[in-house]
Each structure stands twice: as C-alpha cells, then as structure tokens.
Write a structure and sequence with these properties.
Radius of gyration: 21 Å
Helix content: 25-40%
CATH architecture of the largest domain: 3-Layer(aba) Sandwich
Shape: globular
CATH class of the largest domain: Alpha Beta
CATH superfamily of the largest domain: Alkaline Phosphatase, subunit A
Distance between the termini: 27 Å
Amino acid sequence: MKFFSNQFNKGLHGMFFRALPGCALLVVLFGCSKPPAENLLFISFDTTRADHLSAYGYKIKTSPNIDALAAQGVLFQRAFSHAPSTLPSHASMFTGKLPPDHGVRCNGKFTLPEEQLTLAEILYGNGFETGAVLGAFPLDKRFGLDQGFSFYDDDFRLSQLTLKHQASERVMDKVGFWQGQTYLDFERNAYEVTTLATKWLQKTKGRWFLFVHYFDPHEPYEPPPAWRTLFENQYDAEIAFADRQLGKLLETVNSMPGKTLIVFTADHGQGLGDHGEITHDRYLYDSTQWIPLVFCMKDKIKAGSKIINPVSHIDVMPTILDLLGVPSTEGIQGRSLAKAILAGEDLENKPIYMESLSHKLEKPEGIDVRGLVRDNWKFILTNEEHGGKKTIRKELYDLDSGGGGGGENADLSLKEAGRAAEMDKKLSGWVEKLEHEGAKPNPLKISEETRQKLKSLGYL
C-alpha cells in the first residue's frame, strides 16, 4: 500500500480506502482521541542469534548497548522468527502476518503487495514522520517494504558520507576496499547506517517513527581491523561493532525531547555449523529461528523484566501500536503483548508457525521445511526432493532440555510419538489452510543485476 510519489493518488484513493472500511479508516487516518506523545525507534539486527548476545547469557561480551536496553526494559526469552531470511521476516514484523498471508515467501522473488497494510502506513496516518535507513539490498524498496515511509534510504552506492571518511580504516575496510572487493551496491556498515539515521532524526519536527536496519552480522564477516583482534569469532566481532554504533544512535535518541519506545529484534539468526548449516535460509533450528526481542520505554515499561512465554514477529506490530496508543486494524494475525509488558499479565502460549521455502522456490527439486512451536516443543517437517527421489523427515525437540532456548540435540519424534503425531497433524492442517486462504503471491521478475546482488549475499 503506497502513500508516496506517483502511487499516492491511486493508492490512497483506491486500495487504502478499501483496506480500512468505514470508521476504521477514520480512526487510523485521523484518530479519535488525543494523539500519542511517544516516538518509535525500531531496530533490527540482521542475522543475529539470541545466544550470541550477553543479555541472553552469552559469556563473551558482544552487546553492552543491547544489554543496557534489555536491563531498562523487557526481554522476551523465547521469541521466534517465522522465516530464516530477511525480507519475509521483516514483512511479518511490519504487517503482523505470517508469510503465507502477506505473500512474501523468500528474498528477491516477491514484493509485498500494496494491499497489505504496514506499521509505517498506520503511524504515518496518525501523524508520525516515518523514516527508514537500511543496511542491505534485501530490503531495497523494489521489494515493497517502503510502504508508508516518507523517507526510505536504500541507496547502497558509495555515498558522499563514505567518501568523506575514506581515511577511516574501519569504514573503508568494511566496504571492501582493503580486500580489493566492492560491496558498495548492496550493503553498508553500521557506522554509515547510524550516521544517516542520526541526520534524519535531527531534522524531525514532530512525532516520529524510525526503522534502522544493521546488516553487519551477516556473512561475509569483515569487521573493521580494530575489532578483529578483540574477538576470536569474527561473527561476534561484527555484532560488537554494530552494537557500538547502535550505542551512538541511542545517545542521540536519549538526548532528544519526548519519550521514545525502543524495540530491538533480529530478523533471524545464523547456523554457525549447528545441524550442518553454516549460514541460514535452509533449516528451522533455533540457531536461525530463536531471535532477541526487547521493548524499552522509560517510566512506562518496568526495567529488567523478562517474559518466558513463546512469542513471534507477528506480535511485534500490534504490541507497538498498543504501547503507542494507536488504533490497530483488522486482519493482523499477531496479538498484542502490551498487557504482559505493562501489567505482567500471563500470556497464552499460542502455537507459532515457521517456514523455509527459499530452496524449493529456487528450483523444482529442493527442500520445503515447515515448523511448529507449541509451549516448549518444536516440530519440524522436511520434504526434500533430489534426483526424482522424495524424502520426508519429521523431528521433535524439547526446547527446555538444552536450557535458555536451544534444546535441539536429541530428536524425540520416536520417543514422544504421540506428541509428534499430534503436532504433525496440527502443522499439516495449518499449512493446508494457509496455502488455501493466504495472500495471492506478488512475484517479482528478477533482473540479472538483482540476481547477482542476492547471489553475492548467499540467497540464490
């Protein structure tokens, strides 16, 4: 649903009015009570495992600024992504819907349909200035996540900002000059993301919503030289570098007038060799699906709170709207966590759906992986086809058995056959319903340029 440029007239007059019938439209556009006073800073770290952050018990201090946010707000100990890839995960965050229902099933091949109502569109309609600074090409505006943003910075070419700092080794090394490589067309580092985000904030005049996407933890791991010697694991070094730059952004936000709701999460994690997966985008184990989630707002959210109940990305949008006092809309599949955050109310343990279809969508013979989390159990159904041979694998894990959030060392599908059969039936029925009733996909014809950019990031 586009609000800007030449989409404004046809989009606002047509699809937007159809999407929000009757008084619901008036509520979202103009509100019916005193407008909320709080701003919103929404931070997403790409490819960041929860168990590689100090706030989630990691022994190596990778994330002092994220840890501080968690200490000042509420941390969800068991939050899950619905897909191990960037675009579908962010689409779920912004729409409150599962991938089959918003129509974006993998990176690069789909664009978010205009009829999908986004968080940015709702906040823009309620008087917020809406801005986004992106760290990498998978969230380029051609894929539709710019809907509702009046400012959407996805220009990954070598900018004047980088040119002015070309003497800075940490900047130039990250963008690839020191290795004779050029990543300038599809990513930028945390230093530049923070600088651009800060410049936008300094121009705001009223209530604002800023989405900031840090891509540094994504492979290839090339932290600035000064950070390489601080950490044996270069993945950790990338997280730490991004965390440092996030700290600078938070300093700016904290110096600004008014209160700000700060939300921190990751789109997905990283395999790092667990279950034979080095990166992500293939399986649905906790290494890629268990993600950090923190909400922080001074004087409104109790500091140091922790919630153990399973939640997911589709819960983020309705929770933000509730905490900001902004009316929501129909069709959101997620539920607001606001009462649990503000009043400590118990959360119902709702089942969580997840999928990994990138390899199946890339070629007829591939791997289709679906998953279901219910309470402390995860069931994974894998359908794989190679050389005309089809195999089905069913796995069941007790997520509590490993402590914290990872208990996937022992497949209990045979030992707990009854539970596995029950979850298999639930998942299969859910998949059938989602595929039948979900959004009509909006496939995107991929240019050779787009294909090469996605391939360079490991997505094709």
